[in-house]
Amino acid sequence: MNLDEVLLAGPGLAQRPAILVAHSLGCHLVAAWAAHSQHTHRVKGAWLVAPPDLDGPPNAATAAPQLQSWRSVVRRQLPFPAIVLASRTDPYAAFERSQVLAQDWGAELQDLGDAGHVNEASGHGDWPDGWRDLQATVSGW
């Protein structure tokens, strides 16, 4: 199932605004989708957590051969409000590279400090603080 299908699935969903929440490669999926979809007008905003640096210097995120097709990173401004949440200790993206990506996408950058890749391996689990921050962001959109 692709993102368009998800946004249009189910009765009534096609008429309701959507909030996109993505982590890691999902952030790049949102950018690639936004560059070609006819349904971006439905998106009220996007919360993009820990996008990996796919076109910078080789790192753990770009080493896997199955990720080579992701190396053409979409850097077009997103047609909806977005926030990139980036860590200063993410092994998959230097903070400075995350800043540039956020700028290219026209997104606000939120500095998470020392948060690793913002996943279970970096100690986040259910991440109640993130859920609270997301709710506050959504209410502001």
Kindly describe this structure.
This protein is of the alpha/beta class and 141 residues long. It starts with a helix and ends with a helix. It is globular and about 40 Å long. The longest helix is centred in the C-terminal third of the chain and has 13 residues, at 128-140. The model has no long low-confidence stretch (mean pLDDT 85). It has one domain (23-63, 70-140): Rossmann fold. It has a four-stranded parallel sheet with strand order 1-2-3-4, covered by helices on one side. It has helices at residues 3-8, 25-34, 95-105, 128-140, and strands at 18-23, 43-49, 82-86, 108-111. It has four helices and four strands, in the order H-E-H-E-E-H-E-H. Helices cover 28% and strands 16% of the residues.
Blueprint of the fold:
Elements: H1 3-8, E1 18-23, H2 25-34, E2 43-49, E3 82-86, H3 95-105, E4 108-111, H4 128-140
Features:
141 residues, four-stranded parallel β-sheet, alpha/beta, 4 helices, 4 strands
What fold name goes in the CATH topology slot? Rossmann fold
Structural class by SSE content: alpha/beta
Q: Assign the CATH class.
A: Alpha Beta
Q: What does the largest sheet look like?
A: 4 strands, parallel
Quick recap of the structure?
The protein has 141 residues and is α/β, with parallel strands linked by helices. The chain contains four helices and four strands.
